[in-house]
Amino acid sequence: MNKNFTLLVSLLSTFLISVAAHSQSWEVYNTNIQLQSRLIYDEIELLSETVKIGKKGNELSLLSNDLRPAVSLIGTEIYQYLEPWILVKGPKGIGAFHEYGQLVLPLEYDKIHTYFTMLLASKGNEYWLFERGKNKTTYLGELDEAKITNTGLVIIRKGNEYSMPLSKNPNKTYELLADNEGEFVLAKDSGSYGLINREGDYVLDPIIQTLEHTHGNFFYGFNQDQYLLIEGNDIKSNIRYNSFHKITFENDILLEYIHGKLRRVMEDDGILLDDVGITSVDKIGKDLYNVHFRDEKLGLLGKKGWLVKPMLDVEEIHFGTEGLFPAKSKGAYGFVNSTGTWVIKPQYAETTLFSENIAAYKTSLNWGLINSSGELIADPTWEEIKPFQKGFAIAKANSQYYLLNTFGSPLNTVGFDDVSRTTDGYFLVEKSGKTGLLDANGEEIIPTEFDGLRRERKNFIIVQKDGLTGVINDVGEVIIPVAYEKIKVDWTNNQIFTKDRYVPTVIQVLEDPIKRNKKGA
């Protein structure tokens, strides 16, 4: 045999064995577990219903509908996917592709901020802007700050000057341009404040002495001895409330004082409560206020008025459920109704909200259960009790977890290290590092013998055991053997991806000994 050919075969065999040690194969099934295709990738990432990425070695590819490489993404890893932009990381930095495959920013930037129709990229203090509609990248220069607002307005700052490079007047400078959660930018120009819409046009001319954002599209300001509540509008902003009396905005609460006395609780565009004798207001949640009065009454105020009418002998009233509100008096908690009457006298160190007519209460140490009439359901023997859902609560004792029924009795005599609900009412349980599954009635359907378990949907549970992954149904029957490195599911396209080691067939060519002997004769 030719020595060069023998050497070539030897090198080829070594190469194939090396490939076998590193190559990965993926099998693609439909949801009826029928094999559709086999793919050779190290990794497959399912970014969305239509965007799938394949990785082989250091090569990333955007895959076509038939899962073949369609576009090389040049980089080595997916940095982030923010529809419709795929941010890719390479040796020199971050770049961006449109999900259709177009490279829009080379892989050389430190940061990229995304918006639906544009990208803002930076290297150090230099900034570039890509606009999809124009399909071009513009250099913005060396800046101290640049951002895209939540409405797509680009704001830049250099020193103490702000500007909007995409507006009708890109060279105009401002003393301040501040975005917020709403749709209008707060602008300061020539010492006064105004509001700018997403097109960069003033919808409130800069004539207000002071102006600040409160919530949504609402602003609080002061001008010419008047306090103003202003709502942004795409064409012309509206003054929804004005007053010569003092209005304050502190601790996220708008309050109006008349002749120096607190009189009104304000919402963003008007009066929420007008009452004599208010001494202070505490915000305890979104649109929830404890209002204190001079006669020592306290009420719980909501967006549409009193949730609990002002009452005596109470220090706090909290948000409630099922018509009962936790309230504190003389250091102890009970429950009041909307009329301000005690339904369950204050006697507990702490309480939860009512759920399915049951609440948990805490003594100095442990938790028990009561019903909505205050009758005892379970003694305080638990370290923790979570709210009831569909007839069961999760409770903890001696660092172990149990399921409680509505009588306060545990369903499982042996505790678990952890119990958590699935979105469809089943229970994942853990014991000694292993995971199992209980059904909606607390009955064991999969024993705690798996390293990991995820219930994707009815009769489809992805499990891990001894470093391998498979799929079983709700009664523990095997759908896909526990023999794969990874399993991923694309329910929209009815595809199941299973990852396994791929060992190619290596053909070893042996030299014929007879021919070798003849050659040497």
Automatic annotation (TrEMBL):
<feature type="signal peptide">
    <location>
        <begin position="1"/>
        <end position="23"/>
    </location>
</feature>
<dbReference type="InterPro" id="IPR032774">
    <property type="entry name" value="WG_beta_rep"/>
</dbReference>
<dbReference type="Pfam" id="PF14903">
    <property type="entry name" value="WG_beta_rep"/>
</dbReference>
<keyword id="KW-0732">Signal</keyword>
<protein>
    <submittedName>
        <fullName>WG repeat protein</fullName>
    </submittedName>
</protein>
